[in-house]
Amino acid sequence: MPASRAPAEPTVREFEATVESVDGPEVVLDETYFYPASGGQPADRGAIDDRRLADVVERDGTVVHVLAPDADADLAPGDAVSAAVDDAFRTYCTRAHTASHVLYGAARRIADDLGYAGFDISETKVRVDLTTAEPLDDGDLIELERLANGAVWDSLPVSWTTHSPSEARAIDGIAFNTKTEEGAMSGGRAVRVVTVGGASDAVDGTTGGDGPWDVAACGGTHVANTAEIGPITVLDRSNPGEGVTRVEFAVGPTAIAEFGAVHAAALDAATALDARVADLPDAAARLREEADRLEADLRDAREELLCVRLREFDTVAVDGTRWAVGTVADADPNELREPATAVVGGGSGGERPDALAAVGTGGAPFVVVAAAPDADVDAGDAVAAVTDEFGGGGGGGPTFAQGGGLAAEPAAVVEWFSER
Question: Which residues have CB under 8 Å from 118's CB, separation 6+?
Fold first, then answer.
């Protein structure tokens, strides 16, 4: 049987056909307008004589219609049947697929050494994988969206022709590689080439009228004019592999919902910041500066509070060294580094201890040791002694060290320090 006629006649939704063969739930027709999954575009949905399809696949050039498990498989070769392609899903896939070409055309205008690395349509979004000389940033995403919607607004014609492989590869600027060849070649004898825009189309001042918006080898279904696509909204970007940028976008209801959600979020933010939407970047920057200042003030105040708490530790003499030892709550080892270092040594008349041991009282007991530079004690050795006694691990240098994972109550560690 011939290959699917869907790419050549994408507007056909109902057709008559004759059953050519039946193998369990798998039905082959003498001709079909169902699109089999290929090249990133999912298989059509629909029914044959009201028998719902579970899948449409192509095997060795033959389109196989797989009936759903709950469908009666009482068809026989020679039966005349009526088939219907799910209009809503085909329309969505057709618009989404053409939108991917429009987006790639936009990428041609902002990225150097552009390449194509994959494509996929899901029910809510579309992804296009691009290879570029430099990774795309947020500004690039905004420009991609702007250019793509400009191409939609300009109502560019979309056409498809077939060529020999050598002729197709010779077309200037064609996207043609192992990823795009799937579905574009018919038995190796011809290549289907999809062109967005005409040879003299100037789109948003970006083409200069010197060529189409995009041209690519492709076997998918497409709209006849970019205006049929509707709004395109870029959702996100990621980097699935070295040199690859994955751009995710939406068309149709998902795109409209995304536009609405972003607009609503912008209005809510503007209300909260008492600013216009256009002024949100400046308002957010001022808020960030204020938050940074307050965070620094809070950090300084917390550090001073920890210093006060550490200065209140009891002191003990151990081998001629004056130690401050105690417990501290609601702090982590890193927070204690500066306060502990500030408390030890440097005082006149022995006002400050030579060393300090702070034991954390949280769910995971830890110990922090600080020693004055001229003290006859090594903080790292002290922590090693603690972990030898109570388990866990840690390390550090002569003036500061920390250990965690202690298998003991904090009070027991403090007592151990005091009785050495």
Answer: 40, 127, 128, 129, 179
Q: What is the CATH number of the domain that holds 203?
A: 3.30.980.10
Q: Is 371 helix (H, G, I), strand (E, B) or coil?
A: strand
Range of the domain at 171: 93-267
Task: State the helix-helix crossing angle for 410-419 and 379-390, rounded to 10 degrees.
Answer: 120
Q: Are residues 221 and 316 in the same domain?
A: no
Q: Are residues 179 and 254 in the same domain?
A: yes
CB atoms within 10 A of CB 108: 19
Co-location of 116 and 248 in the same domain: yes
What is the strand order of the sheet 232-241 is part of?
A: 115-121, 126-131, 244-251, 232-241
3-state secondary structure (DSSP) of residue 99? helix
Q: What is the pLDDT of residues 394-409, one digit of tens each?
A: 888 999 999 888 888 8
DSSP class of residue 365 equals -
Q: Which helix (H) or strand (E) holds 287?
A: helix 280-311
Contacts of 90 (CB under 8 A, 6+ apart): 6, 10, 13, 35, 44, 45, 221
Residues near 418 by beta carbon (within 8 Å), at least 6 away in sequence: 314, 316, 325
Q: Please give the tally of structural domains in the chain.
A: 3
Token output for 167: 């002729």
Confidence of residue 183 (pLDDT cuts 50, 70, 90): low
Q: What digits encode the pLDDT tens for the residues 280-300?
A: 999 999 999 999 999 999 988
Residues linked to residue 284 through DSSP beta bridges, in sequence order = none
**Hey, is 321 helix, strand or coil?**
strand
CATH number, domain containing residue 62 = 2.40.30.130
Residue 264 phi/psi, 5-degree rounding, is -60, -40
